[in-house]
């Protein structure tokens, strides 16, 4: 244990002497936040959501519903055809589309709302926000219909509109939904940064072998196993520090509410950090040069993050790519974050945790196998 601790302290002293590494240690979490913070344009609580309403069953009640939707705060409603609405949704001009299908007007007259659909490509949070807003206005419309007692709905609706300033409406709060979406995207980008940070472990092991530092250490009582464990432990502690810094900065510096507890997020990201260390170790034993290792790691880490839906909302991907995403470890982190934001707990993340542990075990096994087969390393044991 003492040799491992010595390696840990040695790496820590080297870190303190390297200003570049210290800047990267602090900078990676902050950059991960800033990229999405400015990408959203500080939109929390300020941006207006653009939605389209395709009324395919125009009548007294669906027209009144459209009027109610237009009265929502922080929401800009535009009446469009279904085809135009879907085109603008795909083009990014609209964030959601509400479709009132045939039978919607009659269902409102019968006080049993049906035949309403919501489409959104920016994630589950956006769709659920619009669905809650629609449900709220449908409930309001049904109450107005009951007030009219089936006699003159238009008259009751006009009275409601005239008295609207004195009525306290329950409007959709976009702030929490935008914050959840932003925090999920930050965590997705941060996962890629964690992979890159962990990748430096493999590059360090190869660098010290290429420069002869590793072999000089092997001439001391320190064994190769102790050296590798000590270095991996230091890398893991570094990643955990970055996770803590990212979560604290996101919540208390940038005031972004992730929609779940920081403790739960820390657990999930910590599991991913362990996986990142395991894959870096495996790659360091598979490849013989830093140049090839760096190129392969950059390619794999970037592509897997893109395919997993960590950088791009998975809902806008083609179906076959959505299936491919499930084979990426980052997907299970994002899925866990989504479940936590939907008021889930760590107990609901059994499958996510098992998958991450499975990937970790696989790469640790690969690293162990390559280690035992590597005569160059074992020659100093």
UniProtKB/TrEMBL annotation:
Write the record's keywords in alphabetical order, separated by commas: Cell membrane, Membrane, Transmembrane, Transmembrane helix, Transport
Query: What Pfam families does the record point to?
Result: ABC2_membrane_3 (PF12698)
Q: What's its membrane topology?
A: Multi-pass membrane protein
State a single Gene Ontology molecular function. ABC-type transporter activity
Where is the protein situated, by its record's location annotation? Cell membrane
Q: Name one GO cellular component term.
A: plasma membrane
State where it is primarily located: membrane
Which InterPro entries does this one have? ABC-2_transporter_component (IPR051449), ABC2_TM (IPR013525), ABC2_TM_bact-type (IPR047817)
Q: Which residues form the ABC transmembrane type-2 domain?
A: 147-374
**Which residue windows are transmembrane per the record?**
20-39, 186-206, 227-253, 265-287, 299-318, 349-369
Query: Is Electron transport one of the keywords UniProt gives this record?
Result: no
Q: Which family does it belong to?
A: Belongs to the ABC-2 integral membrane protein family.
Q: What is this protein called?
A: Antibiotic transport system permease
